[in-house]
Amino acid sequence: MQIKVKVKPNSKMQKIEEAADRSLIVYLKSPPVDGKANEELIKVLSENFHVPQSRIRIKSGLSSRQKLIEIDTDL
Known about the structure:
Blueprint: E1 2-8, E2 15-18, E3 24-27, H1 36-49, E4 56-60, E5 66-71
Parallel strand pairs: 1-3
Antiparallel strand pairs: 1-5, 2-3, 4-5
C-alpha cells in the first residue's frame, strides 16, 4: 500500500492525523537533521500500522516534508 504523508518535524507531540484528501499528517518530535525525522517517521508508522519497520520505506521525498511511503502489508 502507498500513502502520501506530510511530516511536521520539531512538534511538541507525536501524533498522526488524517487529512481531507486521505493522506496523513504526521507530527514528529525529531528535527529534520541527519535523517532523524525519517527514522522517527518509520517507527511511528510501524507502530500505527502494526508492521515491522523493515516493511516500511520512503519511496520519494527523503529530504522533503511531502513523502510517498510504501508499506508492505503482505505477511
